[in-house]
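Entry for the shared binder. Reason: the reviewer on the internal report wants the predicted structure included alongside the sequence.
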Amino acid sequence: MEHGNAYQNKHKITINNYFSMSKNIALIELTTSHEECIYSQVKFLKDADYCITLVIHPKLRNQISSYELLIDHLEIYNFDSSNSFLKNIQQFAKLYKFLVRENFKKVIFNTASSRKEIILLTYLLSKKGVKCYGTIHNLKKLNHSFSQKLISQNIKKYFVINDFLLDVIPTKDQTISFESYYPIFFPTHEIQKLKACKEDLWICIPGELDYKRRDYDLLIDVAQNINDGRVKFIILGKANKTKEEVIQFFTRIEELKLKENFILFDSFIENEKFHSFIANSDYIMSPVDIKTDSYLKYKITGAYNLAFSYRKPLLSHIKFKVISDLEENSIFYNDKADLEKIINDLLEDRLLKKSIYKN
């Protein structure tokens, strides 16, 4: 079954409302990020009877294979910094000529942020009368990034991936407008049964092990204090053991004898396995650093949309109660001790679970 249908009805997507004239459209992702947003956009546009050309980085090739049949034409371009300057120039010229030759009137950038290729591409396409649109994943760039301001000269319609971000738009440029969509649709995957012991409590933290984004020490401390092997924190992303912070993480959980409390991965997780872990989890959690306000002002973690898609309850810090989607679908904790009590209560079935996903 395709995920996201029920929750999406509450937040009807607006992307296809903006492309009613031309039925040929290009969706472009030049980076290796945010593939999780592509399928939803392909679905919305396909449902509106568009002919879709998808332009992606080669590393996304395998990830889009499960829905490639929905795409009318696929183009692959590599602008990695490891390439020679001449190669990237040749790639850019080829892509630009292709978009002009195929007479696209509208182009959507899946990641419409500060890359020199996007700056130049949006400028040149706009000169040809092409309307450029894009998803912006970090609103801070709108006012604080010179390169983003250059992009905004040619992208006047941005999309954000949660209604909450519409209320905190900080832009000083009044010529820009915004709409939201929820990338909570995913292609059908064969969900594997992974949970061997039904008494275990699986708390899933999607994303690679990255201390710049998430507070993993909180999880270690909670696991140590609860001291119960039934608690499993699933770090659902690659743990790159060449990074010093990852080495220290592994060292600490080994010294504290907490390896049974963590499910970890040392390589990229294929989509089917990734979605199976989400489906098997009891709760989704994104322990972002609460000492900064980035996730209250400028962006939202993709973990939330995964939870919405699979209708999984969230464990969220009380600071995020201001986000209406989380207020409706989360159990909130105030501090480490509060989180420990909640998890203990969940283990012993003492916590009255709130009614979630009513719509």
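Summary line for the report: Residues 9-13 have pLDDT under 50 and may be disordered.
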